[in-house]
């Protein structure tokens, strides 16, 4: 696939910005940046969701990201989102509570699947 030089320039600019912000370039960004046509929209979507305009303030958005990363067991995402949440003014306790919310949601999801199977195998006696 022929790479657009303008897209490569935009990609490099975004990567430099990410590295300044995080101190490193996450693997997801490293891989996606090989395809600027995919990387640029993905990077813009992430920025819009976490830092764009909307009803949720920046701290709340990053606390939600901490909860979601905790729920999906995203080790690297948890670290990055905790960092952003703290930079946005979240306290240690707010970050911990967000992690507990995500962990709880993951637990109840697994229970939902497991208990349905259990109920099917061992129907409740009337």
Would you mind describing this structure in some detail?
This protein is mostly helical and 126 residues long. The chain folds into two domains: 53 residues, Single alpha-helices involved in coiled-coils or other helix-helix interfaces, CATH 1.20.5; 72 residues, AhpD-like, CATH 1.20.1290. The chain is built from six helices and no strands. The longest helix has 30 residues. The radius of gyration is 19 Å and the shape is extended.
Overall 3D shape: extended
Considering the protein shown, what is the CATH homologous superfamily of the largest domain?
AhpD-like
Q: Strand count, sense and closure of the main sheet?
A: none
CATH class annotation of the largest domain: Mainly Alpha
**Count of folded domains:** 2
Here the CATH topology of the largest domain equals: AhpD-like
Given as residue ranges, the uncertain stretches (5+ residues, pLDDT < 50) are none
Task: Kindly provide the radius of gyration, computed on alpha-carbon positions and rounded to a whole number of angstroms.
Answer: 19 Å
Beta-strand residue percentage: under 5%
Q: How large is the count of helical segments?
A: 6
Please provide the count of β strands: 0
Helix content: over 70%
Could you report the average pLDDT, rounded to the nearest whole number?
A: 94
User: What is the annotated CATH architecture of the largest domain?
Assistant: Up-down Bundle
Which structural class should the secondary elements be placed in?
Answer: mainly alpha
Distance between the termini: 64 Å
Series of secondary-structure elements, N-terminal to C-terminal: HHHHHH
């Amino acid at each position: 696939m022929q790479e657009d030089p303008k897209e490569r320039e935009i990609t490099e600019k975004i990567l430099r910005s990410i590295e300044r912000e995080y101190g490193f370039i996450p693997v997801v960004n490293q891989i996606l940046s090989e395809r600027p046509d995919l990387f640029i929209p993905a990077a813009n979507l992430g920025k819009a969701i976490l830092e764009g305009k909307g009803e949720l303030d920046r701290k709340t958005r990053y606390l939600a990201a901490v909860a979601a990363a905790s729920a999906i067991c995203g080790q690297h995402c948890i670290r990055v989102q905790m960092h952003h949440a703290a930079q946005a003014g979240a306290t240690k306790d707010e970050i911990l509570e967000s992690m507990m919310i995500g962990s709880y949601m993951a637990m109840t999801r697994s229970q939902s699947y497991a208990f349905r199977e259990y109920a099917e195998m061992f129907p409740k006696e009337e």
